[in-house]
Every structure is written in C-alpha cells, then in structure tokens.
Design brief:
Helix content: under 10%
Number of helices: 0
Radius of gyration: 12 Å
Strand order of the largest sheet: 1-2-4-5
Number of domains: 1
Order of helices and strands: EEEEEEE
Largest sheet: 4 strands, mixed
Distance between the termini: 23 Å
Length: 76
C-alpha cells in the first residue's frame, strides 16, 4: 500500500537511543532507530542502526537511508 510522504525528520519516538558499535577497527556511537516507527519520507544518516524484530540495518558514516512511500529503505 502506498503511503503519503510525511517529512524528512524522523519523529523522536523513532529513536531508541545510542550505543557503541564497532566499525572499521574502532568503537563509535551510533543512533538506534525503531524501523516500525520510521515514516514514509523520513531520512536517516549514518552512523546509525535501524532495528526491527527480524533484522538489523547498519548505516555507515557518510551513507544515508530514505524511507519511500512503500516503506522500503533506500541506502545511498
């Protein structure tokens, strides 16, 4: 089902917090998002992790994810 776009900034309830992640030989902080709370049109920049019950999606620094109107994640 196609959904209307709601804006680029995720609502604060989509953010679960921060935690250290190991990437390219060092530990660094990443923002953790709840995939089910991201809305169409939302954008997330790395370093971040998007969590869902069946998967975890890592966004490295310098990369970007956009949620489209079909709730698909596009990594650029």
């Amino acid at each position: 089902m196609k959904h209307p776009l709601e804006g680029k900034t995720p609502h604060k309830n989509a953010i679960k917090g921060e935690r250290e992640v190991y990437y390219e030989g060092k530990w660094d902080k990443a923002t953790i998002y709840d995939m089910d709370r991201l809305r169409p049109g939302n954008e997330v920049s790395g370093m971040a992790v998007i969590e869902a019950p069946a998967t975890t999606f890592f966004i490295p620094p310098g990369r970007h994810v956009r949620v489209d109107e079909w709730l698909l994640l596009w990594l650029t």
